[in-house]
Amino acid sequence: MPFYHKLGSIPPKRHIQFRKPDGSLYYEQLFGTIGFDGMYTNSYHEQRPTQVKAIKKQYSVSPKIAFQNNIKSYRFKGFLVEPQKDYLESRKTVLVNSDCSIVLAAPTASTQDYFYKNTDADELIFIHKGSGKLRTMFGNINFKYGDYLLIPRGVIYKIDFDSSDNRLFIVESRRPIYTPKRYRNWFGQLLEHAPFCERDIRRPQELETYNKSGEFLIKVKKRDDIIEMLYASHPFDVIGYDGYNYPYAFSIHNFEPITGRIHQPPPVHQTFETDAFVVCSFVPRLYDYHPLSIPAPYNHSNIDSDEVLYYVDGDFMSRNDVEAGHISLHPAGIPHGPHPGATERSIGKTKTEELAVMVDTFKPLMITEEAMKIADETYYTSWLE
Ligand SMILES: [Fe+2]
């Protein structure tokens, strides 16, 4: 996140002696991105963060692809994904390309006897159902319904859930996820016209520091493999850190919609960007106020991007028969638009209560076997009268 954050104790300068009460040194770690050119954090550990004791197992969790080169519109019924106790096993990749994976998960329990780290993808976790605490090496963040949790690659974490009823929509991104550049000034500060500002960004506030030795299992995801690494020190042993690279939360309910006299294009809903896809938030808002306005969107061809819409709550004005937890996939190359009757139905409406998350990818998405288990294969004909 491009603003400075500091938590815990740090020395007055980088890379100098920083001593514990007993006179020994804390162990500094530079946690950087984009070579040494991107956002970074300097953290101070009770023990060396490098003490690998054993590599227990390595296994593939590569999603099985059902369709490549897809040009069919699909609807997937996300709430049909089976709840599972284990956090990692509960994660089902439904759509994937070389830049990102779109994952649904219904974990029924907190992460138990292991820590988790994704080494080469940022994780954006949208909380559709559930609440709890994200616990990381950089401190903790409480979360609830409507939160996006952005966990940069390399951050070691656990998730504690308050109950067993949880539904997550996750984007794993091999490209770094940022707030849109056009929302920020030269200095990185969010501009006046941005639909959210720094006050809406919740940074880690509670640092758990354990100076413990023993055996600590970190399940590390690298590409499509999980590697079970046993460390000799507790991964949450940071006494303090500062910098720009840390996990944070942003609630979709704090996204201030931008509206107009006539229909506004999807970019006004943009919340996050990468160089390979965008994430947009559709939130309750007033409709267009031109006297002849048509609130429903026009038919549109996303010639060069696949459009994934995850329906969260409220009424979905442009679609018939779409429910919370559904995903629509409108692939690049063909037009899509309102269902029959939806355009006419929208005229005269003054507001919407819809809540949805959209992911538009520039490269086409492949459909996995997990997605086909929850697919409505007749959706592509749903625009017929
Ligand atoms: Fe669309």
UniProtKB/TrEMBL annotation:
GO terms for molecular function: homogentisate 1,2-dioxygenase activity; metal ion binding. Residues 57-251 form the Homogentisate 1,2-dioxygenase N-terminal domain. The keyword Repeat does not apply. The active site is at H263. Fe cation binds at H300, D306, H336. One of its GO terms (biological process) is tyrosine metabolic process. GO terms for cellular component: cytoplasm. Homogentisate binds at H336. Keywords: Dioxygenase, Iron, Metal-binding, Oxidoreductase. It comes from the Bacteria. Its cofactor is Fe cation. It holds the Pfam family HgmA_N. This is Homogentisate 1,2-dioxygenase. It comes from Allotamlana fucoidanivorans. The lineage of its organism: Bacteria, Pseudomonadati, Bacteroidota, Flavobacteriia, Flavobacteriales.
